[in-house]
Amino acid sequence: MTLHLSDLLSLVALGVSVTTAWLTLFQLGTVKMTQPTMIALLAQGADGPKVFLRTLLYCTARRGQVIEDMFVRLHRQDRNHLFNLWHYGDGPIVRGSGLRIGYEGVAVYHHFVLSRESPAFEFTAGKYTIEVFARPIQAQPVCLGRYEVSLSHEKAIALQTGQALFFNWDSDAEVYFASAEPPPAKFLPR
Q: In the chain, what are the domains?
């Protein structure tokens, strides 16, 4: 039996088609997150301390994935705090209870607060590491990103007096710059 050029090309085309189908239709891919353009801290409010950020979540495969939960782990010196109540939205903020992340992505504000059972927490001056996690359905949480911000003594006082602290990403310098501002009403609990 001899293979003709047309037979060989047909086999190669079939192989490419099967590989493409596997990568686009059947493979789950992973959930990823872009560099947040803004990370903000809010010390006071009905929900207590809050971390919120703006980012795009996307999946590396066409099929997409569903995440059932997100949370933030905040590190300062030798202490860790878990902001495990997740809310999201650009308009009305809703409690996170699952979100489909497709190939095109979802860009919204994500809000994280401490549960009522968490120990008391206060933002003080120092360096903070913010880790953002997502839990795909029936899987272990995945760290989507790790970001470092610094809180000066003046900014810590501004937080305690009701201001929100916004860390805006500067692409050229590749750092977050902080500014204290009144929190927008849409970011406050209703």
A: 31-187 (2.60.40)
